[in-house]
Amino acid sequence: ANLSLYGIALLIFTLMHSVSVLVQYRWIAYTAISIGCCFVVAFLIGTKEPGLNQPSQDKSLSRISWAHWFKKVLYYQVALVYMCTRLVTNVSQAFLAFYVINDLGMHQSSKALVPAIIYVCSLVVSVMLQETRWSGWRLKNYFSAGAMIWILSGIGIVLLPSRMHNFMYVLSITIGAANALMTVTSISMEGVLVGEDLNGCAFVYGSLSFIDKVSCGIALYILESYQG
């Protein structure tokens, strides 16, 4: 979905380069909303939910209280890792368009092309990781590798002069790989936390997603206030 959005943006930036930025973003919004509505309608009409012929008689799965997870140290560790991962990926994407245009002076189409490269590289690395058998040490090593790649990429972004702005495309590849490594491993850590406690997994995934959204919102608010 994100890659499709950046593809639409790249197409509009290329075809409508002579109009104002406001009109360009308006067309991006109209196009994305229209395509999204079509897919929602297709999903609602075309997806048939199978009926439950026989109620489950499994008594071994008892309901787990949400307070149960707050007693686990691993919950806080995974929450911190997941929150930091989403902060890095989401906040960087939010300010990337301003960076490539205002700081590097790149072409308007780079606002879509650079994030698209990041998502393509993330997709490729994620596909490569999908068959990986995760263990504790492997999760730590892969996550540490992704974090280190991101730190090096961040240093490159800070030090990158505007006259070498084309090097940003190379950094986009490393950022995409780092995003995938960190995101895949952090989500896998959630699976390790849940384990076989399937009755409580909804609270774990929901609460961590809530923490992610709140922290990203606060971070963006603070950064925007500082910028202003």
From TrEMBL:
Transmembrane segments: 6-23, 28-46, 74-100, 112-130, 142-160, 167-187, 202-223
A GO cellular-component term linked to this record: plasma membrane
Keyword Secreted on entry: no
Keywords per UniProt: Membrane, Transmembrane, Transmembrane helix
GO biological process: carbohydrate transport
Transmembrane as UniProt keyword: yes
Gene3D superfamilies for the chain: MFS general substrate transporter like domains
SUPFAM superfamilies noted in UniProt: MFS general substrate transporter
A Gene Ontology molecular function term of the record: symporter activity
PANTHER family the record matches: MAJOR FACILITATOR SUPERFAMILY DOMAIN-CONTAINING PROTEIN, MAJOR FACILITATOR SUPERFAMILY DOMAIN-CONTAINING PROTEIN 12
Entry similarity comment: Belongs to the major facilitator superfamily.
Full protein name: Major facilitator superfamily associated domain-containing protein
Species per Swiss-Prot/TrEMBL record: Aegilops tauschii subsp. strangulata (Goatgrass)
